[in-house]
């Protein structure tokens, strides 16, 4: 479970000769304070406090609270020191009920030291773990960067993921508003490397919000929910894989039966119109199960042996341009972020949207960027 990290500052204070440590209260009289109840140990200043802490077996707490960082005292942040996971127990005892699991990449807040056990809070889980499964103090500070990850949240409606830093590079895929992706390295000229599924690419920093995050423990309830969701997702993916296989077989049969002979523009339109009424699916390229606008045009022309780019932006340079007055059936009509196939008589057949699916509309419903002929 990942949660955005918010750094906190707490100042270790010695006010009027007093210092507070979790689980221990030690009061030190000021050197010039007169009282009848004099402490058996003459104590003054922070050095004496440390001495008394050592004498009361809280050295670990002192070490933890005196580790400095760039943002002040390092305080009680610690990190897991395990290869897989350890149980977070409800009590400092191996036989007690477990409330959650602390994994190898987890961050915790130390609440209390209790001998061989440490009380922690991580994510939505609070409980006890063996003391030796945590990096604390100076070692935790030294290892902190190893536990940090960065995530980019998309701020644009649609954002291109490119093969390099700059708009002249190839578009590998597109991401949409509020989606989050892992940042895989350092930015270059305000372009961030990200991983989108199996694709490694770059996004412009002007259109993403990058935050540092940490991973935290998982409660028993959260684990049960995650496992149930994973099982459901696996079943759904298996079902989709079967549907995809069935679709491939159906399309092969349909193509063999209804694909017209020849490669005239009217033949392209006749073939495309067979799929009117089928669904619009963003990112889809299936003429039967669903396609988006560019996926529809690409799939139609693929049946005539013509390979087209995947995105509308790249389709703007295919073939050669013709004017609207010269447009013929089969020509590719491109708009800002949309594309369709010209039918003649001022209409196009296109994958319109989720509500209307694949259908027919006016060719001038929006300003035309260019019309391309590939036949």
Task: Kindly report the oligomeric state of this protein.
Answer: single chain
Strand order of the largest sheet: 1-19-13-16-17-18
CATH superfamily of the largest domain: SH3 Domains
Q: Give the amount of beta strand, in percent.
A: 25-35%
Could you explain how this protein is built, in words?
The protein is α+β, with helices and mostly antiparallel strands. It has 3 domains: 2-146, Roll (SH3 type barrels); 148-215, SH3 Domains (SH3 type barrels, Roll), CATH 2.30.30; 253-373, Alpha-Beta Complex (endopeptidase fold (from Nostoc punctiforme)), CATH 3.90.1720. 23% of the residues lie in helices and 35% in strands. The protein contains 7 helices and 28 strands. The chain has helices at 45-55, 59-65, 137-143, 220-258, 265-272, 293-302, 312-315, and strands at residues 2-4, 18-21, 24-27, 68-69, 72-73, 77-80, 85-89, 98-103, 107-114, 117-122, 125-130, 134-135, 149-154, 158-162, 171-176, 180-183, 191-196, 199-204, 208-215, 218-219, 285-286, 290-291, 320-322, 332-335, 338-344, 347-353, 357-362, 370-373. The strands form 8 sheets. Strands 1-19-13-16-17-18 form a 6-stranded antiparallel beta sheet, with no helix packed on it. A hairpin with a 2-residue loop joins strand 24 and strand 25. The radius of gyration is 32 Å and the shape is elongated. It starts with a strand and ends with a strand.
Give descriptors for this structure.
single chain; about 375 residues; alpha+beta; SH3 type barrels; endopeptidase fold (from Nostoc punctiforme); 6-stranded antiparallel sheet; 7 helices; 28 strands; about 25% helix; elongated; disordered N terminus
């Amino acid at each position: 479970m990942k949660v955005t990290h918010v750094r906190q500052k707490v100042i270790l204070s010695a006010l009027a000769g007093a210092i507070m440590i979790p689980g221990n209260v030690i009061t030190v009289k000021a050197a010039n304070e007169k009282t009848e109840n004099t402490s058996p140990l003459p104590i003054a200043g922070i050095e004496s406090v440390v001495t008394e802490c050592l004498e009361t077996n809280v050295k670990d707490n002192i070490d933890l609270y005196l580790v400095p960082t760039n943002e002040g005292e390092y305080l009680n942040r610690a990190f897991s020191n395990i290869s897989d996971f350890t149980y977070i127990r409800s009590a400092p005892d191996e036989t007690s009920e477990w409330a959650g699991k602390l994994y190898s990449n987890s961050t915790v807040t130390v609440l209390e030291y209790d001998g061989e056990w440490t009380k922690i809070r991580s994510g939505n889980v609070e409980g006890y773990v063996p003391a030796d499964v945590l990096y604390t103090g100076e070692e935790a500070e030294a290892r902190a960067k190893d536990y940090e990850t960065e995530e980019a949240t998309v701020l644009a409606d649609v954002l291109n993921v490119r093969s390099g830093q700059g708009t002249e590079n190839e578009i590998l895929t597109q991401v949409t508003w509020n989606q989050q992706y892992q940042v895989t390295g350092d930015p270059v000229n305000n372009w961030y490397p990200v991983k989108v599924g199996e694709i490694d690419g770059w996004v412009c920093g002007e259109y993403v919000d990058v935050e540092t995050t940490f991973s935290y423990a998982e409660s028993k309830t959260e684990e049960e929910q995650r496992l149930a969701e994973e099982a459901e997702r696996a079943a759904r993916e298996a079902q989709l894989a079967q549907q995809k296989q069935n679709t491939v077989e159906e399309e092969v049969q349909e193509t063999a039966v209804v694909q017209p002979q020849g490669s005239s523009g009217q033949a392209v339109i006749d073939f495309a119109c067979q799929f009117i009424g089928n669904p619009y699916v963003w990112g889809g390229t299936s003429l039967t199960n669903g396609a988006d606008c560019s996926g529809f045009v690409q799939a139609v022309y693929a049946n005539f042996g013509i390979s087209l780019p995947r995105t509308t932006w790249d389709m703007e340079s295919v073939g050669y341009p013709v004017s609207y007055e010269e447009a013929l059936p089969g020509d590719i009509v491109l708009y800002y972020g949309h594309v369709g196939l010209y039918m003649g008589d001022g209409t196009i057949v296109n994958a319109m949207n989720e509500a209307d699916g694949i259908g027919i509309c006016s060719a001038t419903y929006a300003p035309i960027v260019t019309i391309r002929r590939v036949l």
